[in-house]
Structures are given as C-alpha cells and as structure tokens.
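Technical note accompanying the year-one report. For the benefit of new consortium partners, we illustrate the data format agreed upon in the data management plan: each record pairs a sequence with a structure-token string. No post-processing was applied to the example shown here.
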Amino acid sequence: MNTTQPANPRNNSASLRKALAILQHLGDAAGEDQSLGQISTALDLNKSTVTRLLQPLLETSFVEAGDAPSTYRLSWQNARLGQAYLGSLRPDRDMHQTLVDLSAATRETTHLVRASTTNVVYIDKVDSPYAVRMVSRIGNVQPMYSTSVGKCILAHAGDDLIAAVVAAGMPPRTPATITTEAALRAELALIRERGWAIDDVENEDGIRCVAAPVFDASGECSLAISVSGPVSRVPSERVAALAPLVTTAAGDISRRLGAASPVR
C-alpha cells in the first residue's frame, strides 16, 4: 500500500516564490556576490531554507558560486532567458496595453514612436474616446525637433544626431515651433532635467502633447511615448498632471525592455 503523501501545492508555491525572491535579490545586488547570511537577512529566511532553495538553482545554472566561500551570484541561464525574451519582444505589439491604460487614465490619444534618422515614426497608438481628438495614423512620420516624442529621443541622443537635425533644417510648422539650434539645445537640456517633454502647439495647430523617453537594456533611447489632445482639453495647466502619468508609462515600457532604472 502506497503511504506517500501527495505534495502540498501551497508548499510548492511558497518555495517557488522564495526561490524567485533569491534570484531577484541576486539580480538587485549590482553584480556583487552575496553570502548565505546576506541572502538570509535580506529575505528574512533561515540559512537552511536558503541553502535548500539554492541547490536546484545551482544545479540548473541560474545561480553559481561566487569567488569567496559560501557566496553566490546569478549565472548564465538568466542571460539566456533574458536574450530570448528581448529577442522576441515587439514594442508595437507587446507594449500596446500600456498605451491602452494611459489613454484610459487621460482620456486622450496615446502614441508609441521609434526614431527614424532625423524623424520619428508612429508605431502604435490608442485613440481618445472623444469625437474631437488628434488625427494620426500608425506609420506616420514627423520631425524630431517639433514633436514632444522626437525631442525626448533627441534629449538623450549623441551630438551627431542633434547636429543632423539642425543641418536638415528646422522650418516652422506653427508659430510656436523651435527653429534655432540654441533654442533646441536649451529645450533638450530642460527635458533631460525634468524627465519629460512637451510639444506646446509646436508641430500642429491646436494640438498639445506630453511625452517621456523609453530606454532599452543598454540605456539607449530610441522610443518615446506620448499623450496628445486638443488644447481645449489639454491646456497648459493640465500638463503638470499628465507628465507623471506619461513618465510612469514610459518607465513601465523601459523596464520591460530590460532597462534597470530609466535614466532621466
């Protein structure tokens, strides 16, 4: 007669959560080996439990021994899974829900754009529920210098791209468009300082946009996200309320792209 008791699913689930917590702790250690005591203290687990949970992680190469005795660090399996995840990621498909949520929170049109030489191309969008809204389409190309999303990307770009934008010309698209290199560079410095950008009716008459940069695993910024709407619903006074919503959404996308902590 088999008297073996079936495994308790709750116990298995708790053990899995604790093992994942160990991986997360090692990942947050910024490359420094962690001792058994450090892991135990940080996660409020006794050392015997940590030792037991580390064993399968060591056997499957998610964790490896550190340089000093009884220390540990992440191993190569994490990089393999991370590369597989990033390699299959499509921002225009996989970040759509973030645009949906941002549009629901603001009741305005949201966009995700990608850099394209001295322009940006709109790769995803969610329309405002209002009948009066910004008219745009996926695949649309707009200049960097006059759009909030483009200025976000420029603010974190190398000097070569800024020089290329200036050399390509900055004709006025509205009376408010920035058209000089000095004014553009001053605007980019402000964007880097505060972490978001505004198209203050600079690209299209009657439309105001607030945007934030999106960073990838290497810390580069080639994407940006924005909220856009008619000035009647997005007056200057509303910008301060929209900016944190946009930067939070951009941060969410950045983390999903592998950015450890989006740089301002």
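Partners are asked to follow this layout when depositing records. Strands lie at 34-35, 63-65, 71-74, 109-116, 119-126, 141-143, 197-200, 207-214, 223-230.
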